[in-house]
């Protein structure tokens, strides 16, 4: 049965938007062969997401994603035809997703507003971080739930919901599996999780050959010349450990703390990983600019890692938990090998 209408949600929007939702969703008969799209014949499902229990009588058909990472996760899972909007593009979409991404309406290139979200009449909202759900953005998750609109948030941002001892990668893989249940594509989601677990295992093999636990600075961005680096709760701490290294700021209980160049120099990291966000377009976003800043800085330029060019470049967006994070891990492993830290 194809769902046609979203009771509390569309009622709250008013008759005009309800009519638009009916027109856009089509309310057509399902494909003659349900096997062509297993999500259309999937059973009811219930998942827990960041403190809320989400129940679905059938898979969502009108999904809005609030950030690039959640957008690319759904595209990787083959759900482009269920997406009616996306927002907050930080950098170019990965090449493998561009064709599908072109089919998804961009509701806003920046953060989505409550009005823009409501105009899209979704039946599910997906985001990587709870911070997307605030009064000055799309509204709180509770407010949306009261309107009948469920919201899914990555487990990586809500570790208290999960079993103790789960790593950020474990939580990321659990996202795939939860989305697989919601959309009735468990096999597809499980295959993706297994593929990325294998990539993580390969990286850990490289890590076992790394001696001395080298310290690594993960430089995400700069703003007005001030660096933002990976703290102890950010995914790069897990990436460092997987490769037998240590995040130079793993003692800071933040994801991306603002620090000074002098404070970085005091830590004297052996390797520097630089995130490239050049497509975002802000001053200091590109890896080239960050490297130039370090080489021109009177203190940073004296570090062995800078003088000896022990610098590894990765896409900045892949430093945050996403379907692309294992790619950054692979680049990090290759960089350590190139620098002589692993055979």
From TrEMBL:
Domain of life from the UniProt record: Bacteria
Ribosomal protein in keyword set: no
Signal peptide region: 1-21
Keywords: Signal
Coiled-coil features, chain-numbered ranges: none
Sequence ranges assigned to domain Fe/B12 periplasmic-binding in this UniProt record: 62-343
Entry's family note: Belongs to the bacterial solute-binding protein 8 family.
Name by which UniProt lists this protein: Iron ABC transporter substrate-binding protein
Source species of the chain: Actinophytocola xanthii
Lineage summary: Bacteria, Bacillati, Actinomycetota, Actinomycetes, Pseudonocardiales
């Amino acid at each position: 049965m194809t769902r046609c209408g979203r009771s509390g949600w569309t009622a709250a929007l008013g008759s005009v938007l309800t009519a638009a939702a009916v027109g856009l969703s089509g309310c057509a008969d399902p494909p003659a062969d349900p096997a062509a799209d297993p999500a259309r014949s999937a059973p009811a499902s219930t998942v827990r997401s960041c403190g809320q229990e989400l129940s679905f009588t059938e898979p969502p058909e009108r999904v809005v994603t609030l950030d690039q990472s959640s957008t690319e996760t759904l595209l990787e899972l083959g759900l482009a035809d269920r997406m009616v909007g996306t927002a907050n593009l930080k950098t170019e979409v990965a090449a493998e997703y561009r064709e599908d991404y072109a089919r998804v309406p961009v509701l806003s290139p920046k953060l989505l507003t409550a009005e823009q979200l409501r105009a899209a009449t979704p039946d599910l909202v997906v985001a990587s971080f709870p911070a997307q759900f605030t009064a000055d953005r799309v509204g709180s998750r509770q407010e949306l739930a009261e309107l009948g609109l469920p919201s899914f948030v990555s487990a990586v941002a809500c570790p208290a919901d999960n079993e103790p001892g789960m790593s950020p990668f474990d939580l990321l893989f659990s996202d795939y599996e939860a989305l697989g249940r919601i959309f009735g594509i468990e096999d597809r989601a499980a295959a993706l999780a297994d593929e990325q677990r294998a990539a993580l295992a390969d990286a850990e093999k490289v890590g076992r050959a790394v001696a001395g636990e080298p310290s690594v600075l993960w430089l995400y961005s700069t703003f007005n010349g001030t660096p933002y680096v990976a703290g102890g709760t950010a995914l790069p701490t897990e990436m460092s450990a997987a490769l037998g290294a240590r995040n130079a700021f793993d003692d800071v209980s933040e994801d991306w703390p603002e620090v000074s160049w002098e404070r970085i120099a005091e830590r004297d990291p052996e390797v520097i990983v630089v995130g490239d966000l050049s497509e975002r377009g802000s001053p200091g976003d590109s890896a080239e600019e960050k490297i130039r800043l370090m080489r021109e800085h009177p203190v940073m330029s004296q570090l062995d890692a800078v003088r000896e060019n022990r610098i590894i470049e990765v896409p900045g967006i892949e430093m945050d938990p996403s379907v692309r994070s294992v790619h950054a891990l692979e680049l990090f492993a290759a960089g350590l090998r190139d620098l002589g830290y692993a055979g």
